[in-house]
Amino acid sequence: MDRRSFLLRSAALGCSAAASPLLTPVAFAEAPGESRLVVIILRGAMDGIDALRPLGDPAYAALRPQLNDGKHTDLDGFWGLHPALKPLLSMWQNGEVGAVHATSTPYRDKRSHFDGQDILEAGVLQPGGGATGWLNRLLTTMPGAAAETAYAIGREQMSILSGPAAASRWSPDANLRLSGQAQRLLEIVYHDDPLFRDAASQAIEIAALVKEAEETDLETPDTMAMMEAVQSDGVHVNVAEFAAARLRGATRIASFSLGGWDTHQNQHFVLTRVLGRLADTILTLRAQLGPVWDKTAVLCLTEFGRTAFENGTRGTDHGTGGAMLYAGGAMRGGAVRGAWPGLAEAQLYDRRDVMPTSDVRSLAGWVIRGMFGTSASEIENTVFPGLDLGENPGLLL
Amino acid sequence: MFDPTLAMIRFGTGLSPRFARPVGIDSILFDLGEDDEMAAQFPITGFVDTKPSHAALAWVNRAAKDAVDTPDEPAAMQARNLLRGEVRVIRQQHHLATVARAVEAPMGLRERLVAFWADHFTVIRRPFETAHLVTSFVEDAIRPHVTGSFAQMLRAVVTHPMMLIYLEGFRSVGPGSEVGQRRNFGLNENLARELLELHLLGVDGSYSQTDVRELAELLTGLSYSERRGFFYDARRAEPGQETVLGLRFGADPTLETVLAAMDELAALPQTAAHLAHKMAVHFVSETPDPAMVAAMATAFGAGGDLMAMTAAMLRHDGAWVPERTKVRTPQQFITAGCRALGITGEAVTSIDRGGYNRLLGRPLQIMGQPWESPGGPDGWPEDAESWIIPQAMAGRITWAMQAPRYMLADLPDPRDFVDAALGSLATEDVIFAAGAAENKAEGVGVILASAAFQRR
Q: Which of B386, B453, B450 is nearest to B423 (CA)?
């Protein structure tokens, strides 16, 4: 971070513009490898049972009288894809999208969104104050990692990337234009306050990068054809575009949130909207990543699943086991993986939720291991301390 | 030790050349006990009196949905769009009135308390139907009680339509109730869970899933309809005694039972400890002096005396630590900027639509605090690290550089403005930068953007 921080001397005021590090072009560090990892946090707890419907489970229909609306796409005789995910169907068939069912973090019982998300992002069961995020700890194991190796994108705080390793954050709707003099005066008034100094210097630097990226948007005929499949517009599409632009460059890890999954009522309507956004996010990433898509893994993680049964308001309440959707040219998709525990009352967790049969950290751990060559002991001690990595679920090609 | 400049910055809405600083803690508390002049000067209507009402909007919304693909569709859409415009105007007026109060209050402690407790009991609007009514909820249920009793505030919150709509309490039906037996509706735990986790005990509190469920059953009668407003619906209320945190609540499902239960939950020592700590963290530091927190919890007592808790904080030396580790939230930052520039509350309320988007609406989004739109019922983050991130800094710097010249034809001399904005807390780097700026706009901008101004 030193290279990037504000000048340590206010004497720069009198110097030429070139003396200011803020005006110096960023020299990209040698990026660690060619693999790209995108982690999307689905805040609010996605109902895995509705996204990927266990039609073949004998208990399903009775538990979901309203939500089982028959509009799914049959994937393999057992699993049905939610209608809002249909735009991903051809990718599913090509093996570029898949899912693991009945997975969860080790969080149990209290079913609080905030605790659930804290644990998901910290990657440990008891994060406590000052906890670091597991993607940040992953960075500490990557030789040659620099601030631009990892990006947290969007207005939302991403604690999954907070911690000792330098990482970048940006929201594509921010914008910053400053005169050279104003920039130097700001260096002075932030000089003694590291929090402000780092945030402001990054803001100025990223604003310049964004301006540069805008001038080099990926607009090949292929990309433009793929972008036509994107049906919604909004922040999620901008975020995906920005992520892709960074990942085409020196960035190897990007993370952002997609909210709105807390479907206590009228789930059909709400989930259709957010799953549509998720589908468009994935389609945008694929289109904008161009050739890099083949080296990319996208993991969609949520804090927990939802109750096996519908509640009294045509929705579902907070549960335990959920589903992880994944995508990317580097992934082995086209199937719903994971041991399915069943939905009969005796098979449920606490007689209400899907029983988790895998630790979602282990799924992410194996993907990291395959992509970045992180050793098993680094994963079990640093990235996810205390995790037993277990069997390789084989999510990567 | 008490410091008049720090008082304005840490516990008020910021320094202003228009207002004198308080002479001592007694005078701060005396003023806080006086009538709420700002509410009278810049009115905000409550839920019942705000037009268009939730009932009208819900009706128009349904009519528009029903009219899809029928000959009535254009007329129904037009009616909805007309109301959408009215909602936007009211929402903007309510926001501007909120800012005007903070700008025009001599010190602004009451405004800070209102914002703190409103965040504690976060409700989030529904698009269209209640988009202008969050401020009304704060006016009805929060503001009258910030120097009164927490139990009263809690009663007002759990019976307010906006909370019942937001956390879905009004839909929750006791499985054993008359309605529950007859129809396919059931319990919704959302309100009960957030009451225990966020509003009362804190997430570290010792409560179980059983407590959540029993409390949810206890709350089932709390209801709301567009026609009747809030009412207690005995037909939906779960019969039988409920036990929450070992406390047994009456077998008779009535509104009185629920309200009495709120009083008992508000009086728990765990509640006092959670709220005292949260308030200390909000006003003073992420790691507040435990002795101060203990004194605040004691003052809160079994009756939830919020005036006494506020007084206990101000009277404790722990409240006056000179290190300013907290940062102003974007809303506080903009408010403090207006105050330092000498903008009047009157001027704030006369800002037009374009000015609103430019000075408040969009900048707050970029800075990470879109108006009344936190991520969830836990409200806005407290720690400085959550706020001071690159894109938010881009927003703060941009506002500091551009908003003053948009609001004022004649900007102050930056060398004088340092004193107006920071008083005795002006640092050498800021004084130097103010004098070195090439023009007034950049000088004023650098002062407002400085770490010294953003911390409190």
A: B453
Residue A343 lies in domain: 2-383
Tokens of A233: 């517009």
Cα–Cα nearest to B396, from A234, A303, A203, A119: A203
Max Cα–Cα distance, chain A, nearest Å:
77
Number of domains in chain A: 1
Residue of B62, B208, B325, B389 best to disrupt the A interface, most CBs of A under 10 A:
B389
Task: Provide the pLDDT for residue A222.
Answer: 78
- pLDDT at residue A213, rounded to an integer: 62
Q: How far is B360 from chain A (nearest CA, A)?
A: 15
Q: Mutate which of A22, A148, A176 to test chain B, going by most B C-beta atoms within 10 A?
A: A176
Domain ranges of chain B: 4-146, 165-266, 330-454
Point out the residue among A259, A317, A350 whose CB comes nearest to the CB of B375: A259
B299 and chain A: CB distance < 8 Å anywhere? no
Q: Residue A13: is its pLDDT beyond 80? A: no
Q: Do A195 and B388 touch (CB under 8 A)?
A: yes
What CATH number is attached to the domain comprising A50? Answer: 3.40.720
Q: Looking at the domain assignment, is residue A396 inside a domain? A: no
Q: Which of residues 282-321 of A touch B (CB under 8 A)?
A: 311-313, 317-318
Kindly state whether residue A394 falls inside one of the protein's structural domains. Answer: no
Test A312 with B173 for CB contact under 8 angstroms. Answer: yes
pLDDT tens digit sequence for A118-136: 899 999 998 765 679 999 9
| Pairing outcome for strands A296-302 and A36-43 | parallel
CB of A1 within 8 Å of any CB in chain B? Answer: no
User: Can you tell me the distance from the alpha carbon of B65 to that of B85, in angstroms, rounded to the nearest whole number?
Assistant: 18
Domain membership of residue A39 (yes or no) is yes
Rounded Cα–Cα distance for residues B18 and A350 (Å):
62
Nearest residue to A350 (alpha-carbon basis) of A110, A123, A115: A110
Selected for mutation to probe chain B from A67, A173, A184, A193 (highest B CB count within 10 Å) is: A193
Residue A391 lies in a domain: no
pLDDT digits (tens, 9 = 90+) for A45-86: 999 999 999 999 999 999 999 999 999 999 999 999 999 999
Is the pTM for the entire model greater than 0.90?
Answer: no
Judge contact between A320 and A354, C-beta under 8 A: yes
**Closest chain B residue to A171 measured between Cα atoms?**
B391
Helix, coil or strand: residue A302: strand
Provide the sign of the torsion angle of the four alpha carbons A97, A102, A104, A110, taken in this order. Answer: positive
Residue A254 φ/ψ, nearest 5 degrees: -135, 145
Q: In sequence order, what DSSP letters do the residues of A146-213 get, joined into one string?
A: -GGGEEEESSS--GGG-SSS--EEE-TT------HHHHHHHHHHHTT-HHHHHHHHHHHHHHHHHHHH
Is the Cβ of B186 closer than 8 Å to some Cβ of chain A? yes
